[in-house]
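Section 3.1: Structural characterization of target chains.
Under the original work plan, the team committed to producing a structural model for every single-chain target entering the pipeline before any wet-lab resources were allocated. The record below documents one such target. The sequence was received from the expression subgroup and is listed exactly as submitted; it comprises 149 residues.
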Amino acid sequence: MERLVTVALLALPLLSAGTPSRFRDMDLSADREAYVWAEGLLQAAAPNGLILSRGDSQTFSLWYVRYGLRQRPDVVIVDRYLLALPWYRADLAARNPELASLLRARHDQEAALMLLSIASRPVHLTYQDDLLLRHGTWTQEGPLYTLVR
């Protein structure tokens, strides 16, 4: 019985290696959808803009193009969900002194509303945020909502 288990365990890698078509089906190296989306958003953002994104798929795509590929270093990207975390607000304030008011926020909604009053940067949204869209006048051009000052 022990030999049978050993033979079965040794055979598993050989069985999976025998199906290269499965690996081709799972290959996403040519999938550029997230990159194209993030690059388009960054290009559409105003100079020195502040982009509020929501969630991993949006934020990580934007961070990859912004920080990994070093495109649009003038733009600040803020994840709406991460604003709930005090350490994240502290990190944003440390990297961007004009965002120091975020340190006084008691919760994420207050922090998000504070971002609308940052006069030194145009504010953009990558998604429809009911709370933020009720405060101020916004325009929508392509994928971005832009706060009208």
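The chain has a mean pLDDT of 91.
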